[in-house]
Amino acid sequence: MSRRVLIVTHNYPRFQGDPAGAFVARLAWTVAADGWEVRVIAPHSPATQEHERDNGVEVTRFRYASERWERAAFVGDVRLAALLHPARVAVLPLFWRGFRRAVAQVVADWQPDVIHAHWWIPGGWIASQTGCPYLVTSHGSDVRLIERSLILRARARRVLGRAGKVTAVSDFLARDLERLIGADKGAVQVTRMPIDVERYGQGLRLDKVAPPRILYAGNLVASKGVDVLLEALAVLKQRGVACGLRVLGEGPEAAPLRLLAGRFAIGDMVEWSDFLDQSRMPEEYGRSSVTVLPSRAKAEGLGLTLVEALLAGCAVVGTRVGGIPEVIQHEHTGLLTKEDDPLDLADQLERLLADDDLRLRLTANGRERVREQHAPERTAAVFMELYGDLAQRH
What we know:
By secondary structure, this protein is of the alpha/beta class. Helices cover 44% and strands 16% of the residues. It is built from 17 helices and 14 strands.
């Protein structure tokens, strides 16, 4: 019996160390190492190869425009306004046609046993048109799009209704998705994404910087709440708490946030950087004392930066929103703070910065928990069982 899985995704690492879709690649590599034949279809982007073999996985990157105009994927900002930017909308028909053609060609020539689509749109939508059994994994941004558009909600119900299995990366997302598409409770299975637990564990051996560093790593968009973090840092400064903040990220709020830091008179306490190669992140977490995710509303499907930070021996603070409480169990694996409350955030940060025993205890508890949940072999085994089940039913 053949064991062939085709992974369809609009987000896959473009170069070594690229954070875009890193968990998709990690899953593909682990499944391939277990003996499955794995192929990936993803969009081409400037300076990437159209065909390559990546850790035992055949990767095809489809072309849909000249490199200058390949702007439909790797958006980062999933607001409708960003997605509907004229430069992006202009190439969407070409992107869609190229994606469908590439998937159809591989299905016809290679005949996979199952398709695994990451995100219901565009991957799941395209997989639903192939006649091949497929499962869809939602990661968060695709669920929020359903919430914002009745047209997309209707389409999602058809795509997900035809899928052999639907999964989501957190319980929060699974229950939210069930509500939005009218599915029974339990219809969407929770499947964690794999993290390279050993590589991130290298951060444990590193010394913390002094004064203590607070770290934020993520997109610079309003939903992430970095403005609240900056205000909390100003509060800590007023209280005389010695610390600094390092912000790793890019996005439309970058310039406004720098101005805000100036208005709070904390410019000398904040270090700004673009996204870094994934290989450098264990050190970033390992040398930081606290990693913060101060997101708003439903911005976080889970919060993988918190998982990575714990694996590297860094304490975590996050808001009580989305899937964050599934990583941070308050007073056990980290500290939770109120949404949009800089004073409460400052209080939680000060507790961790002032109490080494508390910080070490929470971090150790959190690290043990996420190692169990996100080990590649454990997460891949769940998906491989789903692949086998769908293939046998076909």
